[in-house]
Description:
Blueprint: E1 3-14, E2 17-28, E3 32-36, H1 43-50, E4 58-63, E5 66-67, H2 73-79, E6 81-83, H3 96-105, H4 111-124, H5 140-152, E7 158-162, H6 170-185, E8 189-193, H7 197-203, E9 206-211, E10 214-219, H8 221-226, H9 228-234
Parallel strand pairs: 3-8, 3-9, 6-7, 7-8
Antiparallel strand pairs: 1-2, 1-4, 4-5, 9-10
Helix pairs in contact: 3-4, 3-5, 4-5
GO biological process, one term: L-valine import across plasma membrane
Domain ABC transporter: 5-237
Pfam family, one: BCA_ABC_TP_C
Amino acid sequence: MTTLLDVRGVTKRFRGLTAVDAVSLSVEEGEIFAVIGPNGAGKTTLFNMIAGAMAPDAGSITFAGERADGLPPHELCRRGLARTFQIVRPFPELTVMENATIGAMMRAPDMDAARVKAGEVLRQLDLWDRRDARAKSLTLPDRKRLECARALATGPRLLLLDEVMAGLRPTEVDRIVAILREVNRSGVTILLIEHVMRATMALAGRIHVLHHGATIAEGTPEEVTRHPKVLESYLGAEAL
Ligand SMILES: Nc1ncnc2c1ncn2[C@@H]1O[C@H](COP(=O)(O)OP(=O)(O)OP(=O)(O)O)[C@@H](O)[C@H]1O
């Protein structure tokens, strides 16, 4: 297997607080990899560094064999790394199709190609029937899938998903899990951070667990759910 993303000893401090403390992980091409941890564990901060929203204070990030830490999000997107946001933020007045087309324009050679790509991802994300609806009129599950569609429309090799299941009902979670499996099968590597354990267990081949900014475990879903430190850090917070 080829390593697509390599994070080595990455650290981020906010004044006195070490939000991410010398974290290392590798995501292999083709896998679904999850980062979990209780509130405040440092997941979003780690994600922000991988996605170029902030630079690490120490350590390195390599994407597709090239040094990537400190690069701006648009440059990472050009290289094939796209993300969704925890707070869903499509352009509210634009239609679903227009929102997806804007994502596609990041890498498509012209408008026609962007529209074709947008149509493709809307079908993939089960949003084709809603293509003429304004984004602001969508339900939360539809908006979550539009957020995925916008990121996917950029044609990424690595898709970073930031809590796309949050606030969804179990049937909607199952729907998005099935869609993401298909997206992965079509050749997109996925790195997700998620609180919805059922979905994480169902989707991820490997899980990396953070607690107070540091790694406490990594392994298959079965391995991490049996790990004593994971059980301890989640006690009282969330049943695995
Ligand atoms: N911009 C910032 N300035 C100061 N402190 C921050 C900043 N961003 C995050 N933190 C702190 O860093 C720590 C890690 O936060 P982070 O949001 O990365 O955790 P998380 O695991 O994503 O949490 P959640 O599951 O609640 O989203 C927290 O203590 C948080 O308060």
